[in-house]
Write a structure and sequence with these properties.
The protein is mainly beta. The chain has one domain: Tachylectin-2, Chain A (5 Propeller), CATH 2.115.10.
């Protein structure tokens, strides 16, 4: 049977761009050497990835873009949030879709100037979502520095970003510097923000929105890596940490999916997560997707892994992207 190997698959991008070459018949049959593949567009089927497109002014991108965001299919521009993988400042990049052009000078450099982060350095982008506040559509972006973390915002029309919006305007507590901060908007219109083992919430209440700390906390020894909002439940993807500061992801083969009925909590009928699904691997990969009503999670680790779990007639599949699979 043909052998398919997923290696170093990260984020929302394809592993590489290049031609796919059909090779000769080998010991396991004919197979394809694919430089660009898409293993998540339709789980269970590995298909060729999207072709590359040259961008104008690409030299202004100095780090890995962690997250791309656009409002809807009619958007003329897309925004990307950088980390600090290149060693320089973390930016928000603006790309005009019709001309494949990156705005230059760079659209925005994360560098808050308020008292809340005075004297801080090493700003690192984490996640970005679209969210409406008082009738206006915004992009909210989470980030960390060498002391703490925060959430900024700018209008989807490309308005001037306000890096410390959450602490300076909403007057919320600063986020921890030790963790990344994935965010997701629930079906109830509430924004949920991960902060280590804790999830905070931000609601469109009042002129600037309302922040509530610690909507739910999973066991303290776990770190939330990502969240999936699906059918009124929050699938919280987390790994066990071995140290207090776990931004470097110290973990070994203890990965879990905590299932939280956040709609019930909002109604005051529940106080914790409903169920826990153990995953036999080291950590979650940077990609997850929902296809035909089933969430698929990509994991990374030491051993061969392929399994599924069921929760209230809902299937949850995890695929190890560092391993080889025979189909």
């Amino acid at each position: 049977m043909p052998e398919i190997i997923f290696s170093n698959f990260i984020g929302q991008a394809q592993p590489a761009i290049g031609a796919n070459t059909v090779l000769n018949v080998g010991p396991k049959g004919s197979y394809v050497s694919a430089l660009s593949v898409d293993p998540v567009g339709r789980p269970g089927i590995v298909r060729p990835g999207f072709g590359g497109t040259d961008l104008t002014n690409v030299d202004v991108v100095t780090n890995l873009i962690r997250r791309f965001q656009l409002v809807d299919a009619t958007a003329t521009k897309i925004y990307g949030l950088e980390d600090r993988s290149g060693g320089g400042d973390s930016h928000i990049q603006e790309i005009t879709l019709s001309s494949h052009t990156i705005t230059t000078p760079v659209f925005h450099t994360i560098a808050p100037g308020s008292d809340k982060h005075d004297g801080h350095s090493t700003f690192v982008g984490s996640d970005m979502v679209s969210f409406q506040i008082s009738g206006t559509d915004y992009f909210l972006y989470s980030w960390n520095d060498n002391t703490d973390g925060d959430i900024g915002r700018f209008t989807v029309a490309g308005g001037t970003p306000d890096d410390d919006y959450m602490t300076n305007v909403v007057e919320a507590n600063a986020l921890s510097k030790n963790f990344e901060h994935p965010m997701v908007v629930g079906e109830n219109g509430i924004l949920y923000i991960a902060d280590g083992p804790t999830i905070h919430k931000f609601e469109d209440i009042g002129a600037n929105g309302t922040f509530t700390a610690s909507a739910i906390t999973i066991p303290n020894q776990f770190v939330i890596q990502d969240m999936i909002n699906w059918r009124g439940f929050m699938f919280i993807l987390a790994h066990r940490r071995l140290s207090t500061a776990d931004i470097v992801e110290n973990h070994k083969r203890d990965v879990k999916v905590f299932i939280w009925n956040y709609i019930s909590i909002q109604a005051g009928n529940d106080t914790g997560f409903d169920s826990v699904i153990p995953i036999d691997d080291d950590t979650f990969g940077a990609k997850r997707t929902v296809w035909r009503g089933i969430p698929y999670l990509f994991t990374v680790g030491g051993g061969f892994f392929a399994s599924s779990s069921s929760y209230r007639k809902v299937d949850l599949f995890a695929i190890d992207c560092d391993q080889s699979y025979d189909f």
